[in-house]
Specification:
The complex is a heterodimer. Chain A contains four helices and four strands; from the N terminus they run H-E-E-H-H-E-E-H. Chain A is an alpha+beta fold. Chain A has one domain: Alpha-Beta Plaits (2-Layer Sandwich), CATH 3.30.70. The N and C termini of chain A lie close together (about 5 Å). Chain B is an alpha+beta fold. Chain B has two domains: about 325 residues, no CATH class; about 100 residues, no CATH class. In chain B, the strands form three sheets. Chain B has a ten-stranded mixed β-sheet, sandwiched between helices. Chain B starts with a strand and ends with a strand. The chains are: A alpha+beta, B alpha+beta. Chains A and B meet through strand 2, strand 3 and strand 4 of A and helix 10, strand 15, strand 16 and strand 18 of B.
Chain lengths: ~100, ~450
């Protein structure tokens, strides 16, 4: 089974403001984008389970013009709070990289 | 006006751009030049401490070119979120820099400053009247939270920029602004379609980030007309493609389809991105839904204490094989020590993080177990004063360095520390404490303006 890293041209995370994290998974072509979207490997439930979040807080968007799947959720620790570990939110996507895509 | 052209100098004032790109943009006869100068990206420090986002040296270089370009072209220069956090002091700092540059270069212009720190009691009254709405992830707030925020800013929309321009300003230095409002102000004022206006602005505010082959930050050019807009990089080697421009709508936005701005929501669901050639993209179909209520996003920080840190690495497989239990025992010993180390116990907050296990993701790390041959331990303390934080961390340091494990008989040193002094004082720290939108009746009511002739 391919991993997400084999299918995606870019996987990145960033703050959408200090209180929210957003993860983008971009694909080179529409077919691959549609395949991964259809696989539901990046559903609210899957992401919530992986990151120990409440699925109600995880929103997933399929953005076809950008050939991208976006996942957004409230940051468990607000950016720059006293024991935050990732002020810009740039390295929060690691657990998704090796997800197997059916 | 059937067409409006504008130039974004770069994504962030101080991030830099090529001189050649800027002058190429001036040759295209833009109607204005814009630049965003602030961000919450670096955390609460910019807003709390009032530091520069990029260095003053790099900011000055970019500002000099922006002023020279705008005066040569005879068009307005709009800069938003001055000073990084967009505080009143940040605006004044950038204005002082602009006056120095004007003196050095022999430039004359009418300068407007727009201050974005609202009167606290006005915000407290709005809160009491139920006119503050929490945004995603917002903490609970009270009148006290509003009053004791160290800094509070309201992200302005287009109207304060338009007001400054109506008063004859050539250069507008604004406090905290919605990044896209910097680039939406003049198009809206000139009656261009709001959907196209705001979508173009959202892309342009990041400079050359929407190109397919970006190499660093650089200028971008936008041509807006009645039915669409064209995005183009000014460096001839940079290319925008439909996907690179569309993908940029994703960047730093929680929802790619509905982007909330002060006067309404940008809806990109029907936006279409087409290639005009191999490096220019035309966008059509973006829409704007005007909100019945005008809202401004409030950003606030509260003082959180003073911090000290200590770090050290562990290379011993025996220690690494029992990292969790060693650290649990160590913390217990630290707490006991701190109860008796001083004349009176000092309140503190302590964090011990193991990089190599769960440093980056913390509590949401799916695989927190340690694997590997070395770990980095990061100890952080926050306390009411710097002296207290330092004193606490010195005590922590001593316990941590020599905390034993059953396997080794005798005194051990469990950390490899790269620095002398081992304890590093970080200074004051802040945290974001407000993430709310405030409803206002008049888009200008929270802002203050100052005008002057610079020559």
């Amino acid at each position: 089974m391919p991993r997400l890293r084999d299918l995606a041209s870019l996987i990145r995370s960033k703050n959408a403001g200090p209180f929210q994290l957003t993860i983008d998974v971009l694909f080179e072509d529409l077919d691959t984008f549609r395949r991964v979207a259809a696989s539901r490997v990046l559903s609210s439930e899957q992401v919530a389970s992986l990151y120990h979040l409440d699925p109600k807080d995880v929103r997933v968007y399929e953005f076809e013009p950008g050939r991208a799947i976006k996942v957004s959720f409230p940051r468990p620790v607000v950016s720059g709070d006293i024991f935050d570990s990732d002020v810009t939110g740039g390295q929060q996507y690691g657990p998704l990289v090796d997800l197997e895509v059916p | 006006m059937s067409e409006l052209r504008y130039l974004a100098a770069t994504g962030s004032l101080g991030a830099g751009f090529k001189e050649s790109s800027l002058w190429a943009g001036v040759e295209r006869r833009p109607d204005f030049i814009g630049c965003d100068a602030g961000s919450t990206d670096g955390g609460p420090y910019s807003l709390g401490a009032g530091g520069w986002l990029h260095s003053p040296e790099a900011t000055r270089r970019d500002l000099r070119f922006c002023l020279l370009a705008a005066r040569r072209a005879g068009v307005p220069l709009l800069i938003g979120s001055c000073g990084g956090g967009g505080t009143d002091e940040g605006v004044d700092r950038l204005a002082a820099m602009a006056r120095e540059i004007a003196r050095e270069e022999g430039l004359s212009f009418r300068l407007a400053r727009i201050y974005a720190e609202p009167d606290r009691e006005a915000v407290v009254r709005a809160h009491a009247a139920g006119r503050l709405r929490p945004l995603v992830g917002a903490p609970e707030i009270s009148a006290d939270s509003i009053r004791h925020s160290a800094r509070l800013v309201a992200m302005m929309g287009t109207e304060p920029f338009a007001h400054a321009l109506e008063q004859g300003a050539d250069v507008v230095l604004a406090g905290r602004a919605s990044d896209a409002s910097i680039y939406s102000a003049i198009p809206e004022w000139r009656g261009f379609d709001r959907g196209l206006t705001w979508h173009a602005a959202k892309i342009m505010e990041c400079g050359s980030a929407a190109t397919a082959n970006r190499r660093g930050q650089d200028c971008m050019f936008c041509t807006l007309d009645a039915s669409g807009f064209v995005i183009e990089a000014l460096d001839p080697e940079l290319r925008c493609t439909p996907v690179s421009v569309a993908a940029h709508t994703l960047y730093e936005n929680g929802d790619p389809f509905h982007l909330i701005e002060p006067s309404g929501t940008l809806d990109t669901t029907e936006a279409r991105f087409e290639a005009l050639d191999d490096r220019r993209v035309r966008v059509t179909g973006s829409r704007f839904k005007v909100s019945p209520v005008y809202t401004l996003k409030l950003e606030g920080v509260e003082f959180a204490g003073y911090a000290s840190l200590m770090l050290g690495s562990v290379r011993d497989p025996v220690l690494l094989g029992q990292l969790d239990s060693w650290l649990a025992g160590m913390r217990h010993q630290i707490e006991a020590r701190l109860q008796v180390a001083f004349d009176k116990p000092i309140p503190y907050q302590l964090s011990i993080r193991a990089y190599g296990a769960s440093g980056t993701l913390g509590a949401i790390e799916p695989t927190p177990g340690f694997e590997g041959h070395e770990a980095l331990l990061l100890f952080d303390v926050v306390a009411p004063t710097q002296a207290a934080a330092s004193a606490i961390m010195k005590a922590v340091n001593h316990v941590a360095l020599h905390f034993p494990v059953p396997d080794w008989t005798g005194s051990i040193t469990g950390l490899a520390q790269p620095y002398s002094p081992q304890v590093l004082d970080r200074g004051p720290v802040w945290r974001f404490n407000i993430n709310h939108a405030i409803e206002v009746d008049d888009p200008l009511e929270l802002y203050r303006f100052k005008f002057e002739e610079v020559s």
